[in-house]
Amino acid sequence: MDAYTTLLKPLLFRLDPEVAHNLLMGSLHHAAPLRLLRGLYGYTHPALAQRVWGQDFVSPIGLAAGLDKNGVAIDALAACGFSHVEIGTVTGQGQPGNPKPRLFRLIEDRAVINRMGFNNHGAAVVAARLAQRYAACRPACVLGINLGKSKVVDLGAALSDYEVSVRALGALADYVVVNVSSPNTPGLRDLQGEAHLRPLLAGVRATLDTVAAGKPLLLKIAPDLSDEGIDAAVEVALETGCNGLIATNTTITRTGLRTQVLRVDGIGAGGLSGAPLRARSTAVLARVARRVLAQPAARRVPVIGVGGVDSADAAWEKLSHGATLVQVYSALVYHGPGLVGRINRGLVRLLEKNGMKSISEAIGRSL
Ligand SMILES: Cc1cc2nc3c(=O)[nH]c(=O)nc-3n(C[C@H](O)[C@H](O)[C@H](O)COP(=O)(O)O)c2cc1C
User: Fold this and answer.
1) Which residue in 174, 249, 274, 360 is a FRET match for 114, CA 20 to 30 A apart?
2) Is residue 57 in contact with ligand 1, taking CB distance under 6 Å?
């Protein structure tokens, strides 16, 4: 138990989830005492460090996309101990997202349902913010920028919308993510099909190379793809020059929940994340990792595992099933920022227990 779970969480859980979210993000944006956060939450250990895409990650644990959609709290989040922070999803045009309420806690399930719908300031505004803040220095963590399609843009014009964002943001990111896996933008996940995905990724790759040649490009996929769909997405990602994949986004399934979702006011459609997603997202991760490992060495790329990570054991499970890096979102709602350090400390203990000297030895052991 820490200050978050004993003091802050009971207060925040009395508020509407999005109000609580905005309150926290507002205080991280405007008033975050970085030194205090670093003192409370910062934890590093040499055994956790890795170089991925030629960049230094102090640990495998990063923040998944969706919490800091506009890149307003990167420094504070880095101070909480994340090795990488993925901002976004950012779209070509700024947009308000879906009508509220659109964010729900499923407390009994340690889960979240959201249908935010890519509410964000848009690529130009986020780019101006980052360019100003990081004109003289880079963020204190690896910065991922996750890109999606603006709602008003037709599926057929998706590439040009992604390209607007790539041109604005590509050079400011340490890695760029093509998100085609959110369930909350109508039709978006159709872009995961081979016929759409190949020209989309090839186009994004080409445009990214014009603003930042060779910048790592990742594809984020949904947990609801069939096995054939996963295999095809991996194949297309590798053929079009992607440098990694992220498995997975939220699920549209509702199986195995304790919460009687039909009884929760307004809950309706949206993506489910948190503990109930863990097994499925790990299964998808393992399939992706196996496909990647089956490639000639030159085509192998790192995979980021995300979905239901709420402990060192859960992070270890992702690493064992082929994740080079691991991301967290929903568990932060339930456990607070202290979770990052607890996971990292636990990973060091698991390394010792398994007689391993470095986190890279743990990757893919269960494949
Ligand atoms: C409220 C909320 C908003 C999210 N927004 C995005 C988003 O904008 N882009 C994206 O790629 N993923 C988004 N995600 C998905 C997360 O990045 C992550 O893939 C998913 O939640 C599984 O991880 P978790 O179980 O640790 O939450 C969102 C998740 C939540 C809970």
Assistant:
1) 174
2) no
Residue 277 in contact with ligand 1 by CB distance below 6 A: yes
Domain residue ranges of the chain, discontinuous segments joined by +: 3-361
pTM: 0.98
By alpha-carbon position, which residue is closest to atom 19 of ligand 1?
A: 249
Strand duo 175-179 + 217-221: pairing = parallel
Distances (CA, A) of 190 to 91, 141, 179, 195, 229: 17, 33, 12, 9, 11
Return the best residue to mutate from 82, 288, 329 for the ligand 1 pocket (most ligand atoms within 8 A of CB): 329
Tell me the catalytic residues.
182
Pocket flag, ligand 1, residue 309 (CB < 6 Å) = yes
Classify 3-361 by CATH class: alpha beta
Amino acid at 363: I
Q: Give the integer Cα–Cα distance in Å for 19 and 26.
A: 10
pLDDT averages per 10-residue partition of the chain, 367 residues: 89 96 90 89 96 98 98 96 98 98 96 97 98 96 98 97 98 98 93 95 98 98 97 97 98 92 81 98 98 95 98 98 98 96 98 98 97
